[in-house]
Amino acid sequence: MQEEELTVAHAPFDTRARLQVRGSSNSTRELWFRFDDLDAEGCEKLVELVISLFPQINAWLREKRVGPNISAIQC
Description:
By secondary structure, the chain is α+β, with helices and mostly antiparallel strands. It has helices at residues 40-52, 54-63; strands spanning 17-19, 70-72.
C-alpha cells in the first residue's frame, strides 16, 4: 500500500482524535466546524481559526496531549 492510500482507518483506534470547535467526548453538531452558508470572508475566518489550532494538533500527535479543541476517542 502506498502512503497516499492510507486513511484514518489504518491508524490504531487509541491514537485517533477529532479537531472540534470545542473538545468533547461526544459528537453533537454544534461542536463541529460549520462551513455551510459561509461567504468568502467567513470562510477565510474559519481557515484562520483552524490554522490557529495547529499547535494543539501537533501536541496531540507528538505527546497525546488533549487541548481544548481536541477530542480523544475513548476506547
